[in-house]
Amino acid sequence: MTPEQFLEFARVLPEALLMVNGDGQLLAGNQPAANLLGLRRQEFKQRMLFDLVIEPANDLIKYLQACSTSRAMILGTLTIRKNDGQTLICRSQGAVIQPLSSESSALILLRLENRATTSNNFVLLNKKLDELSKEIQRRKQAEEALSKANEELEIRVQERTKALRQTLNELQLTQAQLIQAEKMSSLGQMVAGIAHEVNNAINFVYGNLYYAQKYIEELLELVKLYQNHFPNNPPEIQNKIEVMDFNFIIQDFAHIFQSMMTGTKRIQEIVQSLRNFSRLDEADIKEVDIHEGIDSTLMMLKHRLEAKNECPEIIVIKEYRTIPRVTCYSSQINQVFLNILANAIDALEDSYKNSSLSVINSQEAESQKLYISSPKIKIATDFIEDNWVTISIQDNGSGIDEQVRTKLFDPFFTTKTVGKGTGLGLSISYQIIVKKHSGQISCLSTPGKGTEFVIKIPINCLNKG
């Protein structure tokens, strides 16, 4: 680094900076250094550092030697002798910026700081620390006051909570229903999200299956051409063909791709059913196809309709009439279908499991056993006068006695075992049909003869209620 480069670097810095060589000769300095030393910058090159300080030359030489071999700042103290005869004690920091070489001596950067200014800074810092301590004390006092106020407020809240306990108990049902509705909303969002992601992935797979099949067929044609033109394979290749059963692979290839095409189409159908069930991509109130909603719900419950060890397959019979599209809260109507169909499946499974039924005689017991050996759910729809649509969901399970039937739509009432039912499904279904859609929902059941739920809703809920 030249003195000119040093000046270009140091001129914008507020610290007093000097550039000296290992012999103590001043090479350059910025304006703050000139002000500190009481010199003009042009006078630097004519002076030696020994002429400006009162420290012994040996001590100064040792300090410069230490600085000339260290990249890290070496701390020291220099007492400056100014032109007016006054002395100024400075704190110095020095480090080499160009090491000693055969061509030139070491170049050292010195940073000077007036100790009086430093002392003033320490005084100011102590003052600020004192102010900060006082502020911390004030804040502690404020926190103590706030803590006391919080304790008083907590006592008042406890008293108010105790006074409102009766009111909160009355709101328990509403709260539970809101939680259940939020769970269904979250489930719908999750279902819609999964359906969207699966749909993107399966469309990618389905879209490329055709090309994959085409490319592999072309490769197989190429292999056949090789076989035709080179019928005598080397022993190694012929052995590999026999081990991998190449002819079988060629024959099975078409079946594999057909299975993959069938599987991807099936996944697309399931994804469409999931999207129809959630309907989160549509408006809250919308004209919908009720049959489509029922079918989507059945798709969601398909795994529960299949045969299991404890219950045979549940047959679903559809008796759909021609009905108009219905303006309603589609996702909530689908929730009603889900609740009722899930309850019907539970009832059929329980009826099949329970061999000891409450019947009058053994002949009726045998008849009942035959009746539920083929569990069925019948779903019927119809359009009636005054623009109403009815949906009937009927099972051939063991039925419900009158005492239970009258409580079915009561909140938290359930006949299921602990952990299996919350008692909210039918209560929420009642709220959705009656309160939200100005419709009707009823249950018809005879012990030993199955249960039927009948839903009646207007084709436009906005024009009712």
Structural description of this entry:
The chain is α+β, with helices and mostly antiparallel strands and 465 residues long. Helix content is 55%, strand content 18%. α8 (246-278) packs across α9, α9 packs across α11 (330-353) and α11 runs antiparallel to α14. The longest helix is centred in the middle third of the chain and has 58 residues, at 172-229. The chain is elongated, with a radius of gyration of 46 Å.
Q: What is the count of helical runs?
A: 14
Give the strand line-up of the largest sheet.
2-1-5-4-3
Cα-to-Cα separation, first versus last residue = 91 Å
**How many beta-strand runs?**
12
Q: Kindly state the mean pLDDT as a whole number? A: 79
Tell me the fraction of residues in β-strands, as a range.
15-25%
Main pleated sheet: 5 strands, antiparallel
Secondary-structure element order, N to C: HEEHHHEEEHHHHEHHEEHHEEHHEE
Per-chain topology:
Layout: H1 3-10, E1 16-21, E2 26-29, H2 31-37, H3 49-52, H4 57-68, E3 74-81, E4 87-98, E5 107-114, H5 115-170, H6 172-229, H7 235-244, H8 246-278, E6 285-288, H9 290-300, H10 302-305, E7 315-319, E8 326-329, H11 330-353, H12 362-372, E9 376-384, E10 388-395, H13 402-405, H14 425-436, E11 440-445, E12 451-458
Parallel strand pairs: 7-9
Antiparallel strand pairs: 1-2, 1-5, 3-4, 4-5, 6-8, 9-10, 10-12, 11-12
Helix pairs in contact: 6-8, 8-9, 9-11, 11-14
